[in-house]
């Protein structure tokens, strides 16, 4: 997809008319990108965000934090404090996700054991049997109910696992309809 905007072309060095503009050297102005092209915060930015959170804890306003740390505005200071809060919570959240994931793995293994087991129909404490037409022997009647329930449980466990790790595609909701506006209490002749 093209926006129609062209990227700026570098000026010719032979002009002599254009001033040399150095690349940003201040660490807060430099961008760091991960291999996938995503923005990656530098350690300097992480420290600066932490300092913003410290200043906020000292009851400074977001504008005061922006002025002290050189943010463009109070919105940037707010975002820095928000990122610092997320950094503090991230290790605990990661540990919780790991614990929940292990528990789901154990439950899934238990559901698979039920699926793999052979189940028989029991009524009033007795195993129900049926005569095999080929051999004439009495054989226990197989019960598929527990397997079907275990399959449903396994599917719910997998759904929980996908949600826990954010593997499901984002669901979009589409709303269509019309809106009717009605002006009440206004004489139409007064509008002319």
Word description of this protein:
- The chain is mainly α.
- The protein has five helices and four strands; from the N terminus they run H-H-H-E-E-E-E-H-H.
- A two-stranded antiparallel ribbon has the order 1-2.
- Strand 1 and strand 2 (126-127) form a beta hairpin.
- The longest helix has 43 residues, at 74-116.
- The radius of gyration is 33 Å and the shape is flat.
Q: What proportion of the residues is helical, as a percent range?
A: 40-55%
Secondary structure tally: strands? 4
Characterize the largest beta sheet: strand count, sense, and whether it forms a barrel: 2 strands, antiparallel
Question: What structural category arises from helix and sheet content?
Answer: mainly alpha
Order of helices and strands, N to C? HHHEEEEHH
What proportion strand?
5-15%
User: What do the pLDDT scores average to?
Assistant: 81
CA radius of gyration? 33 Å
Low-confidence stretches: 7-30
Ends apart, CA distance between termini: 47 Å
Shape summary:
flat
Question: How many helices in DSSP terms?
Answer: 5
Features:
192 residues, mainly alpha, two-stranded antiparallel sheet, 5 helices, 4 strands, flat
Question: Mind sketching the topology for me?
Answer:
Layout: H1 43-57, H2 62-69, H3 74-116, E1 122-123, E2 126-127, E3 129-131, E4 138-140, H4 145-164, H5 188-191
Antiparallel strand pairs: 1-2, 3-4
Helix pairs in contact: 1-2, 1-3, 2-3, 3-4
Short description:
This protein is mostly helical and 192 residues long. The protein is 47% helix and 5% strand.
